[in-house]
C-alpha cells in the first residue's frame, strides 16, 4: 500500500543532519521513494498520513538487548553484576521455557515500539521462538543464540548451543524479506573458555556472519582476565580472533587507550548501555574517546532485568548527559551525536546502514512519527536538542517498519496486547510462585 506522509518536520539524519520543514515522504513497497519539501505531483498514495505538528525521523535501533529477560524485570535489583547474574538471574533462567520466550519477546517489542524502536539486536536462548515473534510482529532484528561454556572438553560437532546458533542461522538469516539476521553470540569471555570463543568465531566465519558479545563490562571482569590470561579483555578477544568478523561489542566500560586502538583497528562496533551500566554500578564507558578515535558507537538498553526499561529515548538522554558530567565538559557528547548513536550508528553496527538509519530515497521505510504538541516542545527552537533533552517516549505516535504501521497512537497492529499480557501474567505467577 503506497503511503504519503505530508506536512512533516523531517529529521533525515543524513551526513549533514538535514532537516526539512513541512516535507513529504513517499513510501512504495516498503521503500522510501520520495523525500522533499515540495508536493509530489505524480505520486498516487493509497493512504495519506498527516504529520502536521509532528517530527518524522528514522526508527531507533536498540543495539543490545535480551528480550525474554523482561520476565525478570524488578526481580533482582541493587546488586553488582556478577552477583546479580550468577546468584539471581542464571538460576531463574533455568525455569524458563521456549513458550515463555515467545510471549516475553512480544512484551519487549511492545515496550520498544512505544519508545520508537524499529530494530533491535537480541542475544538469549530459545531464539527460534524469538524469531517467530519478530517475524509476526514485523520488526527488524539481529538475533544470536547466547553461548556459554565453562570447560574445555566440549565437542564442536555436538555442542548443543553452537548447533542451535547454526540452526537459527539456517532457519532465519535473511528471512522476513531480510528483516531478520542472525549472528553468533558468545556471551562473554568470563562465560566462555578461550577454545569455545575460537569455535564461535570459526562458526561465524563459516556462516559469513558477525559476533555479538559482552566486552569489558566491569572492573572485576577486566581484573580477572588480566590475572588469568595476562592481558585485558579486549586484547584477549583480539588474540583469539574474535574481532576478525564484524563484532558487536556490548559495554566496553573498562578499556585502556591501547584497547581503544585495538577496537578501532578491527572496526569493532561498540554498544553503549548507559542505563544498565549505571544501574549495575559497572561504571561509565569512555564514549567521547571512542568517538574521537572514529569508533562506531551504537546505543542500547540491555535487557529489562538490568535497566529496568526498554526506553531508547531515556538512553539517548543519558548518553548525552553522562559524559558531560563525568568530563565536566558540556561539549563531550552533543545532541546530534547522541541521536546518531541511536539511529545511523546502530544501523551501521548491525550492517544495515545501506537500508536504514537515515531518511533518503531508496532506504527502507523504517520511520517513527513523534508528536510535538506537548508543552515540552515549546518554544520551538532547536529540534535536535529537543529530541535529546526533552522528548519523552510517550511522544512517539506512530512506528513503521518497511512501510507497515506496527504501532499507531498506542495501538499495536501486529501484536495482540490482551493475549500477550494474559500470558505474561500466567508465566510470572509460575516463575515467582504467586498463587
Ligand atoms: Ni547484555
Write up this protein:
- With 435 residues, the protein is α/β, with parallel strands linked by helices.
- It folds into 2 domains: 3-59 and 355-412, Urease, subunit C, domain 1, CATH 2.30.40.10; 66-349, Metal-dependent hydrolases (TIM Barrel, Alpha-Beta Barrel), CATH 3.20.20.
- It is 37% helix and 23% strand.
- It has 15 helices and 17 strands.
- It has helices spanning 81-93, 98-114, 127-137, 160-172, 194-207, 219-229, 233-239, 257-265, 274-279, 287-293, 312-327, 335-342, 344-349, 383-389, 417-432; strands spanning 3-11, 19-28, 31-36, 47-50, 54-58, 60-65, 117-124, 140-147, 180-186, 211-215, 247-251, 269-272, 297-299, 367-371, 396-401, 404-408, 411-412.
- Strands 1, 2, 3, 4, 5, 14, 15, 16 and 17 form a 9-stranded mixed β-sheet that branches. The chain has a 4-stranded parallel β-sheet with strand order 6-7-8-9.
- Strand 8 (140-147), helix 4 (160-172) and strand 9 form a beta-alpha-beta unit.
- The model has no long low-confidence stretch (mean pLDDT 96).
- The site of nickel (II) ion has 6 residues, from loops.
Amino acid at each position: 500500500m503506497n503511503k504519503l506522509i505530508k506536512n512533516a518536520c523531517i529529521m533525515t539524519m543524513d551526513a549533514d543532519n538535514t532537516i526539512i520543514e513541512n516535507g513529504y515522504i513517499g513510501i512504495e513497497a516498503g521503500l522510501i521513494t520520495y523525500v522533499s519539501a515540495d508536493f509530489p505531483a505524480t505520486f498516487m498514495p493509497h493512504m495519506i498520513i498527516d504529520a502536521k505538528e509532528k517530527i518524522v525521523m528514522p526508527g531507533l535501533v536498540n543495539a543490545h538487548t535480551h528480550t525474554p529477560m523482561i520476565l525478570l524485570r524488578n526481580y533482582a535489583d541493587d546488586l553488582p553484576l556478577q552477583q546479580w547474574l550468577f546468584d539471581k538471574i542464571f538460576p531463574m533462567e533455568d525455569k524458563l521455557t521456549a513458550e515463555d520466550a515467545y510471549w516475553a519477546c512480544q512484551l519487549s517489542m511492545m515496550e520498544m515500539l512505544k519508545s520508537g524502536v524499529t530494530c533491535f539486536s537480541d542475544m538469549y536462548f530459545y531464539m527460534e521462538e524469538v524469531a517467530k515473534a519478530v517475524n509476526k510482529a514485523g520488526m527488524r532484528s539481529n538475533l544470536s543464540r547466547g553461548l556459554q561454556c565453562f570447560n574445555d572438553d566440549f565437542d564442536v560437532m555436538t555442542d548443543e548451543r553452537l548447533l542451535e546458533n547454526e540452526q537459527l542461522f539456517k532457519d532465519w538469516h535473511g528471512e522476513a524479506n531480510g528483516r531478520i539476521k542472525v549472528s553468533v553470540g558468545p556471551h562473554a569471555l568470563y562465560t566462555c573458555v578461550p577454545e569455545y570463543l575460537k569455535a564461535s568465531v570459526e562458526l561465524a566465519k563459516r556462516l559469513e556472519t558477525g559476533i555479538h558479545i559482552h566486552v569489558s563490562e566491569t572492573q572485576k571482569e577486566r581484573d580477572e582476565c588480566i590475572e588469568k590470561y595476562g592481558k585485558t579483555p579486549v586484547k584477549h578477544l583480539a588474540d583469539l580472533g574474535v574481532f576478525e568478523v564484524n563484532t558487536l561489542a556490548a559495554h566496553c566500560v573498562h578499556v585502556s587507550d591501547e584497547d581503544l586502538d585495538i577496537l578501532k583497528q578491527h572496526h569493532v562496533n561498540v554498544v553503549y548501555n548507559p542505563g544498565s551500566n549505571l544501574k549495575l554500578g559497572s561504571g561509565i564507558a569512555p564514549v567521547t574517546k571512542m568517538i574521537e578515535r572514529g569508533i562506531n558507537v551504537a546505543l542500547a538498553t540491555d535487557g529489562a532485568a538490568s535497566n529496568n526499561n526498554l526506553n531508547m529515548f531515556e538512553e539517548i538522554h543519558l548518553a548525552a548527559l553522562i559524559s558531560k558530567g563525568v568530563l565536566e565538559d558540556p561539549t563531550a557528547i552533543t545532541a546530534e551525536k547522541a541521536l546518531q548513536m541511536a539511529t545511523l550508528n546502530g544501523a551501521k553496527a548491525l550492517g544495515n546502514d545501506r537500508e536504514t538509519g537515515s531518511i533518503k530515497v531508496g532506504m527502507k521505510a523504517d520511520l517513527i512519527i513523534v508528536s510535538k504538541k506537548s508543552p515540552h516542545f515549546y518554544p520551538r527552537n532547536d529540534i535536535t536538542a529537543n529530541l535529546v533533552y526533552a522528548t519523552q517516549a510517550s511522544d512517539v505516535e506512530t512506528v513503521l517498519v518497511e512501510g507497515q504501521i506496527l504501532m499507531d497512537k498506542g495501538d499495536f497492529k501486529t501484536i495482540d496486547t490482551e493475549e500477550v499480557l494474559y500470558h505474561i501474567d500466567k508465566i510470572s505467577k509460575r516463575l515467582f510462585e504467586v498463587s
